[in-house]
Amino acid sequence: MITLCGFAISNYYNKVKLALLEKGIAFSEETVLTGSTDEAVLSVSPLAKVPFVRTPDGPLCESQVIVDWLEVAHPEPALIPKDAYAAAKVRELCSFLDLHIELVGRELYGQAFFGGSCSPQVQERVRQQLTKNVAALKRLIKLSPFAAGTSFTIADCSAFAALPTVGMASKAVFGTDLLADGGIDWKPYMKMLGERPSVQRVVADRKAAQEAMAGKK
User: Fold this and answer.
1) Helix, strand, or coil (residue 31)
2) Residue 173 and residue 119: Cα distance in Å, rounded?
3) What is the DSSP letter of 107?
4) Rounded CA gap, 51 and 60, in Å?
5) CB neighbour list of residue 194: distance below 8 Å, 6 or more residues apart
6) Residue 37 burial (CB < 10 Å; 0-12/13-18/19+)?
7) Which ranges in the chain are annotated with CATH 1.20.1050.10?
8) To 5 degrees, how large is the angle CA 168–CA 15–CA 98?
């Protein structure tokens, strides 16, 4: 059985978890926080990042690598088109969402969600970069009704993780949702995804983890 390691508040953890659920793959979960110095973690994820998975064949880290492996190891139901070019376009959108939206926006999360603060310099840099990147994302993302077109794909796993957190974080820090400002109407899309049992499971588990974290403070 696959063991998914990380924690339920992590966007990239939930990206992989959603793919596992959509494919109907049996898996267990193991709570591992980022930054571990445990050799058992570093031997699997050398930067101590999450998520990573333990599989019958050995460990894997990096969320996109994991979901690509899942697609090869468990091809049905398919979350990537069979056509080579269409498959590449889905992966292109995943990379764009992960690297140019979520990774840029996460610099705001400390202030937006966890009581921290960003310097004015960081805020301005992130605002400028996100504004540019959201305009570029609008050229790639379909939302018709899914991220890459008419079918649920791994791009939706990335979009599910990235769009609401970046939208809410920018609203909290800047007073305006930079995704909506850039013409990406993500709220109806998320409402539509929320009808899927897999998404309901991930959201419920994330909420429970957030409540548990709040209770420890």
Assistant:
1) strand
2) 11
3) G
4) 9
5) 200, 203
6) exposed
7) 84-216
8) 65
Cα–Cα separations (whole angstroms), residue 106 to 12, 50, 56, 100, 206: 12, 15, 33, 10, 17
Tokens of 56: 């019958």
Tell me if the domain spanning 84-216 has CATH number 1.20.1050.10: yes
> Are 155 and 147 spatial neighbours (Cβ–Cβ below 8 Å)?
yes
Instruction: Report the DSSP pairing between strands 52-55 and 27-31.
Output: unpaired
Give the residue carrying structure tokens 């333990």: 54
Q: Which of 76, 83, 79, 126 is nearest to 104 (CA)?
A: 126
* The CATH classification of domain 2-73, taken from the options 3.40.309.10, 3.30.450.20, 3.40.30.10, 3.40.50.720: 3.40.30.10
Check if the beta carbon of residue 61 is closer than 8 Å to that of residue 49: yes
Where do you find CATH 3.40.30.10 in the chain? 2-73
Q: What is the pLDDT along the chain (217 residues), one digit of tens a residue?
A: 999 999 999 999 999 999 999 999 999 999 999 999 999 999 999 999 999 999 999 999 999 999 999 999 999 999 999 999 999 999 999 999 999 999 999 999 999 999 999 999 999 999 999 999 999 999 999 999 999 999 999 999 999 999 999 999 999 999 999 999 999 999 999 999 999 999 999 999 999 999 988 876 6
